[in-house]
Design a protein that fits this description.
The protein is mainly α. Helices cover 74% and strands 0% of the residues. It is elongated and about 50 Å long. It is built from three helices and no strands.
């Protein structure tokens, strides 16, 4: 077992990652503001990333850390795309409410 897991057990990391994912999911489901929904999805990504890194360190291989790099790359692309869509919606409708997307249908 690696040195890092002598004082803090794997379960502590998994609990923190799970709580972050749960808070992100609650924020995404309960809010209508697009920026809050976007931040909640990023919080879910980070909760999963903590779990991958913790499992990778626990088992002593680098696959968890390598997968987190791909998750962060996807999150960066999603951030650029989501913020561009939010800015375009705000310019057109002067709101960041998710219900304004319903009015944009052709």
């Amino acid at each position: 077992m690696p040195e890092i897991f002598t004082s803090i057990a794997l379960q502590h990391y998994l609990i923190v990652g799970g709580l972050m994912f749960a808070i992100g999911m609650i924020g995404f489901m309960c809010r209508r503001n697009l920026i809050i929904m976007f931040l909640s999805s990023e919080l879910m990504f980070q909760g999963v990333a903590i779990n991958f890194v913790a499992f990778g360190a626990y088992w002593g291989n680098m696959s968890g850390q390598a997968f987190v790099i791909f998750i962060l790359a996807i999150a960066a692309a999603e951030a650029a795309l989501a913020l561009a869509i939010i800015v375009l919606l705000f310019r057109q409708k002067h709101t960041v409410d998710s219900q304004a997307f319903r009015e944009l249908r052709g």
